[in-house]
């Protein structure tokens, strides 16, 4: 299996979409800005995702894309296959026409190794849902290292932050 930029970008864009779809259709321009992926490239990817019924488009003002299925029902393998990424690491592309020294069965010496690796990768990617990746991303965003949106904090928290507490604060000098 080759995981190329196309597959990685498709998975990244789908996570972005799934994280934001509760707020309505998600625009490709927004995904492009947030993920730094070319808009024209996203248009190509989402055309393929739409044809595979992973996303659906909403036309008109306020339009964009929504998931066509629940995030739990979409796997990473579905996304990668939809954007035409071959899930194959064998030299022959799974056709058994390996190049180089061939064994009596017509395969190269490492064909079974790569074939088994393909099978394991497909099984793994088929076991990871888009919802799993969304949950993982939300858990990361909830960690202390991530900046919080202070607009949602209570006025008491804002007031507590407004009073400087540092030793070199002008307010501390005036109060002593």
UniProtKB/TrEMBL annotation:
Region Disordered, residue ranges: 139-163
Superkingdom classification of source: Bacteria
Pfam families for the chain: Rrf2
The entry's keywords: DNA-binding
Keyword DNA-binding carried by entry: yes
GO cellular component terms, semicolon-separated: cytosol
Stretches with biased composition (Basic and acidic residues): 139-153
GO molecular function: DNA-binding transcription factor activity; double-stranded DNA binding
Gene3D superfamilies in alphabetical order: Winged helix-like DNA-binding domain superfamily/Winged helix DNA-binding domain
UniProt protein name: Fe-S cluster assembly transcriptional regulator IscR
Gene giving rise to this polypeptide: iscR
């Amino acid at each position: 299996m080759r995981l190329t930029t196309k597959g990685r970008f498709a998975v990244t864009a789908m996570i972005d979409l799934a994280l934001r779809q509760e707020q309505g259709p998600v625009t490709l321009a927004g995904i492009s800005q947030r993920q730094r992926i070319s808009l024209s490239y996203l248009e190509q990817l989402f055309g393929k995702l739409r044809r595979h019924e992973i996303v659906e488009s909403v036309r008109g003002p306020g339009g964009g894309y929504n998931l066509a299925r629940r995030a739990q029902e979409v796997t990473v393998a579905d996304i990668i296959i939809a954007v035409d990424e071959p899930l194959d690491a064998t030299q022959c592309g799974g056709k058994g026409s390996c190049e180089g020294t061939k064994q009596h069965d017509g395969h190269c010496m490492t064909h079974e190794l790569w074939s088994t690796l393909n099978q394991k990768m497909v099984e793994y990617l088929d076991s990871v849902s888009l919802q799993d990746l969304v949950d993982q991303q939300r858990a990361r965003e909830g960690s202390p290292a991530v900046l919080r949106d202070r607009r949602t904090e209570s006025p008491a928290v804002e007031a507590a932050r407004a009073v400087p507490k540092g030793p070199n604060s002008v307010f501390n000098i005036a109060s002593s």
